[in-house]
Amino acid sequence: MDLYDSLLVASQANPDKVFLSNATESHTYREVFEAAQELADRMREVATPDRPCMIQADSISAGVAVLACLSIRKPFVPISGSTPEARFHYLCEDSGSDLLVRDRVVERGLPGNRAVRPSLESIECASEPWTTVGDPADVACLIYTSGSTGMPKAVVCSRKSVTFAVQAIDEALQYRPSDVVVTALPIFFDFGLYQVFLAARNGASLYFATELESSMGLSDLLERTGATILPMVPPAAEKLVRLIKRGLRSHRVRQISTTGAAMNAETRLAIERSWGALRR
């Protein structure tokens, strides 16, 4: 089954359960997938066939945009909201994108959640057809390197490879419908992006934490959200050890995963000594 179809089917099992949330808002599976469909409809009206869509938005809007692109087989390019202007223009030109998804416009005076309706802008692009390796319709996304040693380069990820990666990670980590995944990883980072897919695939809830929440405010965050899964990078795991030594409790956390490199043995043992083996 195609990745988007599998996520849509899973979402229908418990449509009124919270799917995406942060400190100020939460949205159910029904709300998120309906918002993705509405955005996909707007994309169809203005998009150039097969060309990618840039996504530069807050995490909830970005999650909606990713699902919208997948649903109409439009490649997406997630980028940081703090991308410098010169690099932004380079990424637009290099990727050949024709659309840009940005944050929602805040409507003052409205109580409760804002509707998940990201802004959509057209980008001037070349008139010739977009070309890449293989069939453009089989491309899920373009993930750009950081560009720390030169200009960023795009890694072209096919729908097949993304589907395989999600399935493989899911088999290893085994998320559950009862899980609350709390992450500070951005969606333009591959493991941050995969959290959307892994949570949706299993009917779990995904909470996007701020940098402050995931550091000094972590104790309150774990208690308030009932977090059970903490995906992170190894340096964050090392910071976690320092907080544990100051008395941070695990609350309901049952699993910590890292990406980019394996968690070093000293860090892992320090967590296990205080929080136990976790994988439960």
Describe the structure.
It is a single chain. This protein has 280 residues and is of the alpha/beta class. Helices cover 39% and strands 18% of the residues. The chain has 9 helices and 12 strands. The chain has a 4-stranded mixed β-sheet with strand order 2-1-10-9. The chain has a 4-stranded mixed β-sheet with strand order 4-3-5-6, with helices on one face. A two-stranded antiparallel ribbon has the order 7-8. A hairpin with a 4-residue loop joins β1 (18-21) and β2 (26-28). α1 packs across α6 and α8 packs across α9. It is globular and about 60 Å long.
Features:
alpha/beta; globular; 280 residues; four-stranded mixed β-sheet; 39% helix; 12 strands; 9 helices
Topology, element by element:
Elements (H helix, E strand, L loop, with lengths): L2 H9 L6 E4 L4 E3 H18 L6 E4 L2 H13 L4 E3 L6 H11 L3 E4 L16 E4 L16 E6 L9 E5 H15 L6 E4 L6 H13 L2 E4 L9 H8 L3 E4 L1 H12 L9 E4 L6 H11 L5
Parallel strand pairs: 1-10, 3-4, 3-5, 9-10, 11-12
Antiparallel strand pairs: 1-2, 5-6, 7-8
Low-confidence stretches: 106-111
- Spatial strand sequence of the major β-sheet: 2-1-10-9
Please provide the ordered H/E string of secondary-structure elements: HEEHEHEHEEEEHEHEHEHEH
Number of separate helices: 9
Q: What's the gyration radius in Å?
A: 19 Å
| Global outline | globular
Number of strand segments: 12
Q: Which class best fits the helix and strand makeup?
A: alpha/beta
